[in-house]
Amino acid sequence: MGFGGLSMVQLGILLVIVILLFGSKKLRTLGSDLGSAIKGFKSSVSDEPSGKEQDVQRYQNLTSKEARHNEQ
User: pLDDT digits over 9-37, tens only?
Assistant: First the structure.
């Protein structure tokens, strides 16, 4: 038994039809676009700040330390 009630032969035929309709190049770019979209979604959902956000936090820490030093 295959995937969702489809046999392996039916899945193979479906795959050939999809490749003929869209072409392998378009499917390759679609796959890479989908992968980058998923990666971007996961990074935005995660609790860890991104590299850019970490740089902003470091800059804010440095400027606040300089301001405190200048006040003394």
Answer: 998 999 899 889 888 888 888 888 989 99
State how far the Cα of 34 lies from the Cα of 47, in Å rounded to an integer.
Answer: 22
Judge contact between 7 and 1, C-beta under 8 A: yes
Give the CATH number for residue 51. Answer: 1.20.5.3310
pTM, two decimals, is: 0.42
Which residue range(s) make up the domain with 35? 8-70
Per DSSP, the residues of 7-63 read -HHHHHHHHHHHHHHH-HHHHHHHHHHHHHHHHHHHHHHSSS--HHHHHHHHHHHHH
Q: Is residue 2 part of a domain?
A: no
> What is the distance between the alpha carbons of residues 15 and 20, in angstroms, rounded to a whole number?
9
